[in-house]
Queue: 4 jobs
Job 1
Amino acid sequence: MVFYFALWFREKERATATGLFLLAAPVTYLVGAPLSTALMHYVTLGDIAGWRWMLFLEGLPAIVGGVLCYRYLLDSPQKATWLTQSEKDWLAAEFEREKASQPPVTHLGTWQALTNPIILYLSVIYFLSQVGALGIGYWLPQIVQNLSAAFSLTQIGLIAGLPYAAAGVGLVIWARLSDRFYERKFFTAIPLLLGAIGLFVAGTTQDPYLGMAAITLALTGIFATKSPFFAMLTQLFSKPTVAVAAAIISSLGNCGGFVGPYIVGVVKKATGTSSAGLFVLSGALLLAALMTLFIVIPRHKSKQASLQALKMKEQ
């Protein structure tokens, strides 16, 4: 999708576009759990178990979506019948103007990309962010219960959804700000740092309200970092290379989704509390934030183009 957005959106709009796409993740966490529970308990047609109906019904939208994407997602604005020719020409001219004002970016083949140090470096950053994201996501209900044993299972489910609601709002706002200031690197590092702070506070406090506020801050930071992070790829690589780079980074980085819950589980077993595991996740996010600050983006593109974009927006 990062490559697809590069074909359709100007660079100063890509973080917002990516953010709206990634908004599906917190919405899924927010809606998916109660929906799945309802399907398992209340859909019992025939002799088919509720959990089978859940898998069937929740799988249908993905199948329909795949067909619709194949039918309607075009790989070029020039093929869009719902755009006028003048709109197509304007967008093509905007892309050409961007290309002319940019310094040379890296173009890599598939095998070169697999061993490219920049891509591998970015993969480590994304891996660390996913360690924190899925580590806390998997154990969030247990963490909420630890914060206050007075919560019922229903309350835990509802409370665990609140941080994702806040994360969805924060994700969109942060993506728009990243586009507004035409800045990617610091807009990636700052929410990672906030996520690290949130997890650290959540692991130290015994106050359930402060704990939930800290977890909300952490998840908001974790989700907010994704849009500017992936939008940053177009500042470093050519459009064809972006597709390969995003695939490699996502594939390697998502391995953190296994490591994060595993770490929390191991630490919880050793210490008897999941709070200690939050410190490890906090450290992972802190390291990711520090590593992000060392990414080198061509000055011409990140600074001069920023001023140009702001001037164009004011006109």
Note: The chain has a mean pLDDT of 81.
Job 2
Amino acid sequence: MLPRAAAAFRRASTVASLTSSTTVRRIPSINRQLSLRSFLKRNDKLPQDLPVYFPRNVNAAPPRLHAFRKRLGRAVFSTIAFYLCWQIFVAVVFDPLLDWADHEWENLSEKEKQEWEEVTEEHGDEPLLFLPFPFTRTEVKQPPYKGSDPEWLTFLALNKDPQAQKEIKFALAELIKKAVEKNPGCVKLLGGKDVKLKKMWLDIIYPPAPPPKHFISG
């Protein structure tokens, strides 16, 4: 009886201890408030002596070699572009022009061919075909007239001839009248094609030098 009673007593004490432990456990409150003080107190600053490593491309070419490759690529591209442009120019402009010249030469008579041959013999240094280069036009001013120049002598003769000046004035006025009669806007503004010349004046100014000459390369 005694062993059974002792075992029963131990079982009862074990159950009592389990029940007491379960009843004593505390349940956390749902209404608990969170605080940000713990986060604000954290110091996120990095130390000053932290080493920094930058990646280095080992396979990169040196600066001088890279610049040389760049210049070489530009030179090759410019050469290819110039060659293509020249081929297009020859195919579109030069070849059709030569074909047209050959066709015109074949259509000439024997007499006309002889005349052309004589012209080429007289002007052997001058080329028969001139292809101008763009943006190569230059202007050259001429020196002033001399007293013995034929143009200046013509100006002096005209200045001493009032009748010639009058004829020039009337001829210019007639040209302007015909141009006004052919212009619909001027006719509408004047109210008809019947244009009459009433008052005219002409100031003749003689240039001190010939007009400038223009040269172009080709």
Note: Residues 63-107 form the longest helix (45 residues).
Job 3
Amino acid sequence: MNPLIPLKKAIPLFLVALLLACFAIVCVVQAQSLTPSESPIASPSPTEKAALPSPAKSPTASPFGRSRVSYGREECVALPPAPGTEIDSGRKDDEDDLCKIRFDDPNVILCPALYSTNPGTDIYELPTGVSRASFEQKECAKATGRNAHFLAKYKQSTSCSYTPAILAYGKVADALKIHVDVPSVVYRTMEQATHKGVEKMAGVYAHDLIKQTWAGLVSQMANSNPKVIKDGLLYGALLDHQGGIDHHPTLNHRGPDPNPAAPFLASSTWAMATKGSEIRSQIPPSLKTLGQMMAVRDVGEMAIIDHILAQQDRFGNVAKKEKIFWLEQTATGQKLHSVKATKANKPIDGTNQTTMQYLNANHIPYVQFPVMVLADNDCGLRQNSNVV
């Protein structure tokens, strides 16, 4: 079927999506603009403080957000789903895991993002036996390929980046029940003193345009820009890490300004997504053609969510993750299974057998291909138009 048809039927949810976007903006602006005694983020009331869970406990329901965890003055808030919709169970778990990350944890270390034109903080698990000083000197100096487990990214409103846009994408994706992968994200504050070390490293390790954008963020904080900082607390979004900065091999091409979408709009994948006929009439359905069929579906969904949230910087920022797919016969018919390629050679839960060993031992055909990930959603909700 045409990948746009189910989403077109969901057009009434556009109002829900816009409401959600407004909700995200209100949450951020409220936290930034109220006085410390009024702000539900910077300084909760004594009653609210008493209701807050301790850092060691699981997040609980909160008047502000779906759940809320406090680490000293810092707070992490998982936003609720859009009204009338449900949160994806996997996303809920990912959001709760994000709120378990403590910036002052001795096993957590922060580095400046040196590969993105919009400044951000990369958060890693400090490898066993490696000192903080050594990691900051050797690994944080790298733009990519740092030798550590990447936990999350922290991004703020600066340049075209806008925290409410980052927060809105996952909720709108759930509301529209789209399939394309959008990373989980939570609202997070950070002590300015914690960020100072990241700024210092960025001043040494960043170059050219990235050095300039980092200097711009530091200047905003120095000038107490309320969209970025208030009372010594930074405001931003903490994102689940989605496999690094691997770009999609066929859907990521960016054209020259002023028409960066030109290569995408000229692609055969976009042509099939907008043709108006069912995918099966254009692509014979089979396991071998699954990757092409999913790509057509994903670009249709990408165009819709990017249009709703007025994305300005998609092309050049279409990521991917490699996945393996196979079919198995069940009592109700064939069922499609998948696993990330990075996990295919790891033991299946509860067994000593890997996915690849299982597939090969049972002579089960499989395919591997890149699946779209919309991991970089910073530059939305600032303008009325979209790049497509």
Note: Residues 13-33 form the longest helix (21 residues).
Job 4
Amino acid sequence: LPLALSATDATPLPEAVRATGRALFAAEEHSGVDLDALVAAVHPDPGNPRPLVTVSVDLDRAALAGIDLPGLRAEGVAAGTESAPLELALMATHAPDGSLRLRLRYDADLFDAATADGYLAELEERLAGVTAAPGEEAAPSEEPEPGEEAVPREEPVPREDAAPGEQAAAPDTATLLREIWESLLGVRGFPDDSNFFDL
């Protein structure tokens, strides 16, 4: 669905999340509208009938290739979630080891490779910022200049474990995500088995 949402770099994250939620619910109420008719009504330019870019983001889980069944052998293949061809589509596959495999499909008539790579670089930087440890800033992604060879990134040196009692045990991922969403949405004590969209 096309969403009407206005936000700037100065918009606080909680307000951006709430505004996105309001925009999603408002769009859902008008989901039966004919998009082509709507675009033609607001932008009646015969030379540019579809000024909007259709974008999709899909999240899927990797197949359980390692499942052990009698007389059956399974092997993972390099394939992610698929969707109908759109102008721009990002497919993220959640691997069993917890990592994400990203795949970007785009219309080469609308986007060039440099633009698509720029989108992925910005996404990587934002994901690094979201997953950075408290008090640490994610290192900005450094893209090589055109014509320069990319320099392999150095692997981070693992930190030594803190002595017992120096720091409290870190919460598991599910608990941490729950705390973040509760803080952003201003909702506490929501039952674990309730519908997320009821928030």
Note: The mean pLDDT is 70.
